[in-house]
Design goal:
By secondary structure, this protein is mainly beta. It is built from six helices and 40 strands. Helix content is about 15%, strand content about 40%. The two termini are about 45 Å apart. It binds zinc ion. Zinc ion binds next to loops.
Length: about 650
């Protein structure tokens, strides 16, 4: 299953200030790029084997009472138990494969009661008949009032998450009510008209935070303290003569911009999935991560929505982190600011280490403008750098430069002679707050151009459990991935390499536990093996195929080479290489990719994945890709003796 990292995802709901946390489960929809034209690479899958036995109806997807996310058409798959029966689901004839599996894409049936619907399956072979009623849940239906009455959706009036804002920032409230009504927001002695948005029945009002607070907070209730004050706001929807009323409770605190709170970013003690020493931050309240900040980083906070906190990196740049990832410092603690003095690099056999000392552990973002360059941006930093020592013992740095940018940003650009293999940073923070940065840049290993895998340490991560997809006959993705991983480990060993098999049993393992194991084992490459599934609502046929994912630019050429290796070996459709915000590929210490060789849900793929021959083809495809990538690196090294 794709996007296996089960991160809490936000669903933007109509309530003011925003949202509720959706439970994590099921597949996060992948990018819908539409069906790929067939025939790019002709598939040569083994034929689906023939299975004869009693009729035994099983639905693998959707799970019993699982809530699906679409209401028009969706896929349903499972098995009849035998290849010689016919199958009808909700009146539609469905093809049964020789092994009894089926995959249908059908209109979603109407609700039977509440939000429950069901698939009615009927299998027949001669006089032998089996039936199955398989219930599942339809997408939640938004509240609808009685026809002819005026209403306000109670869900849109739920108490709002606590919010911190700075003066000047816009506060927005939305509610759902009868379309085409007149909707008012009553705050203190003022009333404000809420305007219906382009979505019928959704009304919006926005106002500058501090002015709104002054109006909405009764003088006796307003504390202006370090706590949030609960604003009670009235909502009225009026249609002709009738009125619906509701109340919103909105906890709000206006921050003093001259004395913003400070915090230290810290991983929770025992984070789910393991610890990796990094705090992930995103540019928006929801969405992918774009900054990986080292444990101990000190930050300025200037906003909060529920358990999401807003970091101020520069006056124009914000980042969002989770409450669990930070520790508030006492009010009045200083903001992260520092001069950046001299820098020094030390050359070690396998890495370069840069060390520098700061008044505080500043937020630092790292980017890779090209294969040989790293760019560090330090926020809250002023450059007084007189000297940068490139390090003795071998020329590894081509040149380095620094510049001061607006918004107290210091940028260091390091151009390396060799390509960037990986990097990581860590802070040592003294009780005084002073902090020492250690930034390590990993050198590529010396590759044997004749036997590129000789001596190379390859981390092989069979994806799942937890989570993971199932095929129509119940084959579990975690088992398929493990079988392929074990073969790949053997192939790596046969090629002279040292495999590090991250999981060799069927026990659940956290995503960061996997990457940390690879780092501890001093692996040089990380490959996570998966098999894909589609999100609800997509017609599967024509969308199945092979893909590879990467996150950091220094992993891209590995992803491309392994994708090519898998295509040549598996001969499935080319879905291409994807950039993807996946936990295991965010690890930056070595090139790290994730493969989605085939699709669990496609009957012919599932049947193939059960065979050791196809598993071997998958493993060999990855191996050939790694070898090709290493050859490329060896060529690089040849041209830079
Ligand atoms: Zn998976």
């Amino acid at each position: 299953m794709k996007f296996s990292l089960c991160e809490r995802q936000f669903s933007l709901f109509v309530a003011a200030f925003i949202t509720q946390l959706a439970a994590c489960g099921g597949t996060t929809p992948g990018p819908d790029l539409g069906p790929v034209p067939p025939g790019i690479i002709e598939s040569v899958l083994p034929p689906i084997p023939s299975v004869r036995g009693p009729i035994r109806l099983t639905v693998e997807y959707p799970d019993s009472l699982q809530r699906i996310t679409v209401s028009d058409s969706n896929f349903v798959f499972g098995t009849v138990g035998t290849g010689d029966a016919t199958l009808i689901i909700n009146g539609h004839f469905v093809d049964v494969n020789p092994n009894g599996s089926f995959l249908a894409f059908l209109p979603v049936p109407e609700a039977e009661a509440g939000d429950t619907a069901s698939y009615q399956l009927l299998a027949r072979r001669g006089d032998e008949v089996d039936t199955l009623r398989h219930p599942f849940l339809l997408p939640e239906i938004p509240f609808k009032g009685e026809p002819g009455t005026v209403w306000i959706d109670p869900a849109s009036l739920d108490d709002l998450p606590i919010r911190w804002a700075i003066p000047g920032e816009l506060l927005e409230f939305t509610v759902r009510a009868t379309p085409a009504a007149e909707v008012w927001l009553d705050a203190g002695s003022e009333r404000y008209s809420m305007i219906e948005t382009e979505v019928a029945g959704v009304y919006r009002f926005a106002m500058e935070a501090e002015a709104f607070y002054r109006v909405a907070c009764a003088p006796e209730d307003c504390t202006w303290s370090t706590e949030a004050d609960s604003l009670r706001l009235g909502v009225r929807a009026i249609l002709t003569d009738s009125t619906a009323r509701g109340t919103i409770v909105a906890p709000l605190r206006i921050l003093d911009p001259s004395n913003l709170p400070a915090a230290v970013l810290r991983e929770p003690d025992e984070p789910a999935g393991g610890a990796d020493g990094l705090i992930n931050a995103r540019p928006a309240l929801t969405g992918p991560y774009r900054w990986l900040l080292a444990n101990g980083t000190r930050v300025t906070l200037d906003g909060r929505v529920g358990n999401r906190w807003r970091i101020r990196l520069t006056p124009e740049l914000e980042a969002w982190v989770l409450e669990d990832d930070l520790e508030l410092l006492p009010q009045g603690s200083s903001q992260p600011r520092s001069k950046v003095g001299d820098l020094r690099f030390e050359v070690l056999p396998d890495r370069l280490v840069m060390r520098a000392s700061f008044a505080a552990a500043l937020p630092i973002s790292v980017s890779e403008p090209d294969d040989h360059t790293l760019e560090l941006t330090m926020f809250g930093a002023t450059g007084v750098t007189n000297r940068i020592r490139e390090g003795a013992g071998g020329r590894l740095i081509d040149r380095v430069e620094w510049e001061q940018l607006p918004g107290e940003r210091y940028r260091l650009r390091i151009h390396f002679v060799e390509r960037v293999w990986g990097y990581r940073s860590s802070w040592t923070v003294l009780p005084t707050g002073r902090a020492h940065l250690q930034f390590e840049i990993r050198r590529p290993p010396a590759i044997d151009s004749v036997s590129p895998l000789r001596g190379r340490r390859i981390a092989i991560d069979p994806g799942h459990p937890g989570a993971g997809a199932h095929g129509p006959t119940g084959y579990y993705e975690g088992d398929a991935n493990l079988a392929i991983g074990r073969i790949l480990a053997r192939l790596v060993r046969e090629a002279g390499g040292e495999p590090v098999l991250i999981r060799d049993d069927t026990l659940s393992m956290g995503l960061y536990e996997r990457t940390q194991l690879a780092i501890e084992a001093r692996a040089e490459i990380f490959v996570s093996i998966h098999n894909n599934a589609l999100p609800d609502g997509l017609r599967p046929v024509g969308r199945e195929g092979t893909s590879a994912y990467y996150y950091h630019p220094h992993s891209h050429s590995l992803a491309v080479a392994v994708q090519q290796g898998m295509l040549s070996s598996l001969r499935l459709r080319d879905l291409g290489v994807f950039w993807g915000d996946l936990a295991v590929t965010r690890m930056s210490w070595m090139p790290a990719i994730l493969t989605e060789g085939a699709f669990m849900m496609i009957p012919s793929h599932e049947a193939a994945l059960r065979t050791s021959r196809f598993q071997e083809r998958y493993a060999r495809g990855i191996l050939n890709g790694i070898e090709e990538f290493l050859r490329e690196v060896a060529w690089d090294q040849g041209s830079h003796p």
